[in-house]
Write a structure and sequence with these properties.
Rossmann fold; 9-stranded mixed beta sheet; 9 strands
């Protein structure tokens, strides 16, 4: 099988639990560290699936790597190679596929409930649950591309996830590990302090409270979703 390629846009926002999941399921994967200036692949055809992680930048920024990344996403969708996006990654998918990315009504940072849409497609991805506690760190959000299906919402952000066939985009972060949460709280503490008046922002103590139980539950949810996503990986 060709490897799954994971695109990292920031040093602290790598594959997280997804990397653990892929290794546990004997799925080869590699990483393109855009934050280190590593070259983008020439074609999506070299991979069984494409994954785009988070990052502090906007998809609307004038960054040289964004247009070719959007091209890779379009190529993958055209060739039925599954794409998976987390936060910035979901926004890149939306922009590539005809959606719009702009400011969310409020910033979301910390733990918050997301609600699963009452549809067969949402049930296919998330099972019979009504919702779950996810992790959030974003100030922008995406609209749904044409023909996409809405999957998740939250109190402060209507579009938390969508699917387009075998392609899946998240606004929230289901890939978190305990270490990632703690590192983000350290590197992003000034942003939290400056944004604490937002109803979607928790303080640093609350974000890091009961962390083992929260991350364990989120990993279980992510495992189920990732298990569905890898069913679509290209095997030829």
């Amino acid at each position: 099988m060709k490897p799954v390629v994971v695109f990292r846009h920031a040093r602290t926002e790598g594959a997280g639990y997804l990397g653990t999941f892929l290794e546990q399921n004997d799925i080869p994967w590699c990483e393109v560290r855009i934050d280190k200036g590593e070259a983008l692949p020439d074609s999506a055809s070299n991979f069984s699936g494409l994954v785009f992680m988070g990052g502090p930048m906007s998809v609307n920024d004038n960054l040289s790597w964004i247009p070719p990344v959007l091209g890779l996403i379009r190529e993958a969708v055209d060739k039925d190679i599954p794409v998976l996006g987390h936060c910035l990654g979901g926004q890149l998918m939306s922009k590539a596929l005809g959606g719009v990315v702009g400011a969310n009504p409020v910033k979301e940072i910390g733990w918050g409930e997301v609600v699963v849409a009452k549809s067969q497609e949402a049930q296919n991805w998330f099972g019979d649950i009504d919702g779950f506690l996810s992790f959030h760190w974003h100030g922008e959000t995406f609209s749904l591309p044409p023909n996409a299906t809405h999957l998740l919402s939250s109190r402060h952000c209507e579009n938390q996830a969508y699917s387009l066939g075998k392609h899946l985009a998240f606004q929230c972060h289901v890939e978190m590990t305990e270490e990632m949460v703690r590192v983000w709280c350290e590197t992003g503490k000034n942003e939290v302090i400056e944004s604490i008046s937002s109803p979607g922002v928790q303080d640093l103590d609350e974000i890091q409270s009961d962390l083992d139980a929260r991350v364990t539950a989120l990993n279980q949810l992510a495992r189920s979703v990732y298990t569905n996503w890898i069913k679509g990986l290209k095997t030829d």
